[in-house]
Write a structure and sequence with these properties.
The chain has 338 residues and is α/β, with parallel strands linked by helices. The chain has 2 domains: 119 residues, 3-Layer(aba) Sandwich (Rossmann fold); 208 residues, Dihydrodipicolinate Reductase, domain 2, CATH 3.30.360. A hairpin with a 3-residue loop joins strand 9 and strand 10. Helix 1 crosses helix 9, helix 4 packs parallel to helix 5 and helix 8 packs across helix 10. The longest helix has 21 residues. The protein starts with a strand and ends in a 6-residue tail after the last helix. 51% of the residues are buried. The chain binds NADP nicotinamide-adenine-dinucleotide phosphate (NAP). NADP nicotinamide-adenine-dinucleotide phosphate binds next to helix 1.
Amino acid sequence: MTELRWGLLAAGTIAAHFAAGVDESKHGVLGAVAARDAGRTRDFATRFDIPKAYGSYEELLADPDIDAVYVSTPHALHKQWAIAAAEAGKHVLCEKPLTITAADAEEVIAAARAHDVFLMEAFMYRLHPQTRRLAELISSGAIGEVRAVDTTFSFDSNPEETARLGDPALGGGGILDVGCYCTSLARLVAQAATGQEVVEPAEVSGMAHLSATGVDEWATGLLRLPGDILATISCGIRLTREDGIRVFGSDGQIHIPRPAWIHPLRKPGVSQIILTPAGGEPEVIEVEATQGVFAREADHVAAHVEDRQAPELTWAETLANLRTLDRWREAVGYGRSS
Ligand SMILES: NC(=O)c1ccc[n+]([C@@H]2O[C@H](COP(=O)([O-])OP(=O)(O)OC[C@H]3O[C@@H](n4cnc5c(N)ncnc54)[C@H](OP(=O)(O)O)[C@@H]3O)[C@@H](O)[C@H]2O)c1
């Protein structure tokens, strides 16, 4: 398998987790990091023993020793840097959401295609064995005909520490930050239930509490998915709620109290899926992850880099999710300042 020399574009919170993941990966090596502040870049490079530290993203993209770039700027800057990386001939792993809108994602995908590089949106939870097992259970008919999904990803962030989440210019709000997992998960369930590769909802509605600047601080959406599967999806950046996934079918239900996107599940270990047949007792299915999520993600890119797309996170998958997010944000009046 190809060994990839990684360059990190931005040295923020998630970049540190990914750097540790590359260190643990089987087919990745940390080659360089770039941040806007040269001093901070050097500190980051020292912390993770990265051989090169650049004070600008452009310098890293000009480095011929870098094969693949991990973009972890705030959402609104993903498009610019993913396109710049593709133009520089680098393979691209870009944090979620790939862009703010589906139209912007089309442009990033066109750049990847034109410059013949790999591109994947970093929805690492899709690669976790727990998510894969959920899809298998649904497609094998473990709960019969799937009829409804409820999923929530919501946390109460400190506005001072997470300024990007409150700033509409940076793509703030919960729908783009964590609601994207809920749309992705609900669509995955419908995909597994119907056997279709990529699905989109026929109807999307929603409501949100908007901040004074117009970003959604807590939101709920309703999706009518193929197979008439109805999904209730909830997210927030200023509200702690119980995260979880529940899938209801004609012959039973599945509950995942700790979905693969929560922080503790980033590490190797055992997680649970609770399967309750209609009228029966709950059965706890244990799923073991032998690798941390970011190490798995880096190895997944290496495994599929020659294909240019990863089978579980194709470009069609990214576009379908972003179109759903466009519709959810429109339904809640995103951007309407009070
Ligand atoms: N997969 C996951 O589990 C996960 C978890 C959290 C976040 N994320 C995603 O990762 C991305 C970054 O999130 P984060 O939590 O790491 O954010 P963060 O800690 O605020 O880091 C963002 C970095 O972006 C850089 N940046 C470049 N231009 C900027 C600008 N105009 N304003 C502010 N920052 C700018 C800064 O890097 P330099 O100063 O270092 O250049 C900053 O360190 C988001 O898109 C988010 O959705 C993914």
